[in-house]
Design goal:
With 70 residues, the chain is an alpha+beta fold. The chain has one domain. Helix content is 29%, strand content 20%. The chain is built from two helices and four strands. A four-stranded antiparallel beta sheet has the order 2-3-1-4. Strand 2 (25-28) and strand 3 (32-35) form a beta hairpin. It starts with a strand and ends in an 18-residue tail after the last strand.
């Protein structure tokens, strides 16, 4: 999966276009989406601008080492 950022002014129209191809997933409020290469082809063909961004690793809960409380 690729991760892209859409301009806030265009995200609504771009999102509607992308869901015609396949589902997309919002992964950050910027708006940043996980998309397929087919989505990028569609956005480019329709003249939408986007920025490919690296997906930041998700925070993982810290593991607790030691013994359970008795």
């Amino acid at each position: 999966m690729l991760t892209i950022r859409l301009p806030k002014a265009d995200w609504g129209r771009a999102w509607r276009a992308m869901i015609e191809v396949a589902p997309v997933r919002l992964v950050a409020d910027d708006p940043v989406y996980e998309v397929l290469p087919a989505h990028l082809e569609l956005l480019t063909a329709r003249g939408f601008q986007y920025e490919v961004v690296p997906l930041s690793p998700r925070r993982q809960e810290k593991r607790r080492h030691g013994t359970a409380d008795a």
